[in-house]
Write a structure and sequence with these properties.
LRR_dom_sf, Variable lymphocyte receptor B cassette, leucine-rich repeat, receptor, five-stranded parallel beta sheet, Leu-rich_rpt_typical-subtyp, Leucine-rich repeat, LRR (right-handed beta-alpha superhelix), 126 residues, little secondary structure
Length: 126
């Protein structure tokens, strides 16, 4: 539920992989302002709330592989300027919104393999 992590304001790594998560409530990570690594891989997530990562401006690693994500909201990564590792492989993504990676100037690894992408717009990486 939202607020479950409210007292963990000093947390730098959160590992929720290999569970059966299907939904992440909006605001669930809002108090984790020092979080650097977030592992949500190997779950059953089908969608992500648009502002889910809004407070995670210190995040350097985000693992979302092996879920059931069909799409990503435009702007979902806009406040993650320190992100270096983003793994989205083994989902069901069919497209990538224009501008999705625009603000990820420090990105070193991007995993999009094993999805259902038919094309990736050039403007996804502007």
């Amino acid at each position: 539920p939202a607020g479950v992590f409210d007292r963990l304001t000093q947390l730098t790594r959160l590992d929720l992989d290999n569970n059966q998560l299907t939904v992440l409530p909006a605001g669930v990570f809002d108090s984790l302002v020092k979080l650097k690594e977030l592992y949500l891989d190997h779950n059953q997530l089908q969608a992500i709330p648009p502002a889910l990562f809004y407070s995670l401006t210190e995040l350097t690693r985000l693992e979302l592989e092996d879920n059931q994500l069909k799409s990503l909201p435009p702007g979902i990564f806009d406040r993650l300027g320190k992100l270096m590792y983003l793994h989205l492989h083994e989902n069901q993504l069919t497209t990538v919104p224009a501008g999705l990676f625009d603000r990820l100037g420090n990105l070193q690894q991007l995993g999009l393999n094993d999805n259902q992408l038919k094309n990736v717009p050039r403007v996804a990486f502007d």
